[in-house]
Amino acid sequence: MTRSMQAVPKADAPRIPMPAVDPALNLTPSTWKVLTDSIFPAAKTAEGILLAVHYCAARNLDVIKRPVHVVPMWSKALGQEIETVWPGIAEVQTTAARTGQWAGIDPPRFGPVIERTFSGKVKRNGAWQDLDYAVSFPEWCEVTVYRLVGGQRCPFTEPVFWLEAYARQGGAYSELPTEMWVKRPRGQLMKCAKAASLRAAFPEEASYTAEEMEGKVIEADTSIPVAASLDATGTVPAKADTAPSGVAEAASDAAPSKASETPTDSEPRAEPITLDPSLQARIDKVVARAAEKSAWKQAEQYLRARCKGAELKQALEALDQAQQTAEQRLAA
């Protein structure tokens, strides 16, 4: 048989069959195979991959470079995982760089290492399995991002805590970390901290990332319980020795007490009370440090742990007002 008569080997079929697509996407069968088998090998549906393709087309991004990820998220309404598309940290950095105002980034800073064993159930091969993961992870991480504002290089820092950020597997109420967060507890937290600071610096350009949304719950109307986040009395544990960027020392002198609930908009606001001058000064210092470091969540946590009743309400209102003022200045 001559060479010209030899049969051409047939390429393997893609892992997921190619659906009918918009011709404007210029998506060929060979490109589809690359997307299903190499770029998004964990995607389970054609719809999830097409969402990524459309996202990249709208943002003028090269989907082959995988700037976005197909992320499974648990839907409480459907009682199952569904596929969503979120940008990766590299895409958020690209968006920030395109503004021409990104002015650099500092190395990550980590809090003290915590060791803990997580237990839970994971469904594999149609059966639920009990798993235990022993993980050593940093309590928190912060990454400072710089942006040119009015010609000046301004820092933006948004600390992120591991227990609040890590991705879970096993459903809506599982506390079991995903394998990636078990293998890379520092690296994954660093990505989340970098994304949070990029959003603080570029609120109109940056969004939540795949690293932050993996394992989260859609339509959640209750909080996901995390053991050890409260002590036996229901009080938020004090963290004055481990707080990032100096928030702790500002709050360490405030009077200790049990945590109270945050006032809601539906509740009538009480008339401001006159606080003890020393307590007022310490609260003002906490608020000022939070504004300086953009550490709003951490400041709230420390105020909750050390104030109560009307004192807590007034302190949280002052913190909320300072945060709104900071956001308005940034948007101006």
UniProtKB/TrEMBL annotation:
Q: A single Gene Ontology molecular function, please?
A: DNA binding
Pfam families hit by this protein:
RecT (PF03837)
| GO terms for biological process, alphabetical | DNA metabolic process
Q: Region Disordered: start and end of each range? A: 235-277
Top-level taxon = Bacteria
The record's InterPro entries line, in alphabetical order, gives:
RecT_fam (IPR018330)
Q: Where is the composition biased (Low complexity)?
A: 243-260
Protein name, as recorded: RecT family
